Amino acid sequence: MAEQAPAPTPVIPGEPAVRFVGATARLGGRTIWSNVDLRIDEGRFVAVLGPNGAGKSTLIKAILGTVPLAEGSVTVLGGPPGSTGKEIGYLPQRRNFDPSLRIRGIDVVRLGSDGDRWGLPLPGASLFAGRRARRQRVDEVIDLVGATSYAHRPIGEVSGGEQQRLLIAQALVRRPRLLLLDEPLDSLDLPSQASVAGLIADISKRYGITVLIVAHDVNPIVSSLDGVVYVAHGGTVSGAPEEVINSATLSELYGTAIEVLRTSDGRLVVVGHPEAPAHHADRHSGRPR
């Protein structure tokens, strides 16, 4: 079907999508990060980067309201975390679908629309109209992510990159203002990483959706980013890509020599970025990320 694009999300100048002020997160009595001051403006495409165990996923969970802050505050889309759930699309860390799983891709996407509804709907014109609108929206987002040709196949039979496109479609069904993606490129091959990263960047730019993407490797997305948040040493460093993604800053954050090169076409490339242990990793239980 021809794409019926959703209307761009209204962006209010000067109003942040996410703001942390003096924020501290603790898990099991252990401090993950502290004194975090962070502002992410509406409509920005921002990467959350850092070593394993530094607390990247904890930052996302604080925005969702599933990890309460020990100190300080966080405001999300103008309210407290957890108060604007329908305006947030969330894709957790990559799931491994069993190859024998028979549920179709379109059914996975549909869960983003009606996964919180239980029981059978009562008959009625308005209910049928609502169901028809939801079906149309599911078709729209499947088309938007380029998954129409395989959406009716079992989710376990499509490739990793195709699964990620369907899961991104699921997160977009309710027309979120804020999209939180926790390592959506992890375990994908390089062509799939580039394809999915390009899709996410395009969605952010075309529809004004604020995107926070936790990434293991910044190289597939660096050319599209508006901002970077590095989580390391129990805190954060944020700014424009050129301000944060440079040899001196990254070498200090990781505690080892890292080289950032600029290609002939102006792109930044991070060379040899290791997974150094986080500053507080030995104090954590369960290796928060």
Task: Give a brief outline of the structure.
This protein has helices at residues 56-64, 105-114, 125-144, 160-172, 190-207, 241-244, 247-254; strands at residues 16-27, 30-41, 45-49, 71-76, 88-91, 178-182, 210-214, 227-232, 235-239, 259-262, 268-271. A hairpin with a 2-residue loop joins β1 and β2.
Radius of gyration: 20 Å
Give the percentage of residues in beta strands: 15-25%
Name the CATH class of the domain at 16-100 and 178-283.
Alpha Beta
- Coarse morphology: globular
- What strand order characterises the main sheet? 5-6-7-3-8-9
**Global mean pLDDT:** 82
Q: Please count the helical segments.
A: 7
Spatial separation of the terminal alpha carbons: 40 Å
Q: Provide the structure class.
A: alpha/beta
Overview of the molecule:
This protein has 289 residues and is an alpha/beta fold. The chain has a domain at 16-100 and 178-283: 3-Layer(aba) Sandwich (Rossmann fold). It has 7 helices and 11 strands. It has helices spanning 56-64, 105-114, 125-144, 160-172, 190-207, 241-244, 247-254, and strands at residues 16-27, 30-41, 45-49, 71-76, 88-91, 178-182, 210-214, 227-232, 235-239, 259-262, 268-271. The strands form 3 sheets. The chain has a 6-stranded mixed sheet with strand order 5-6-7-3-8-9, with helices on both faces. It has a 3-stranded antiparallel sheet with strand order 2-1-4, with helices on one face. Helix 2 (105-114) packs parallel to helix 4 (160-172), helix 3 (125-144) packs across helix 4 and helix 4 (160-172) runs parallel beside helix 5. It is globular and about 50 Å long. The termini are far apart.
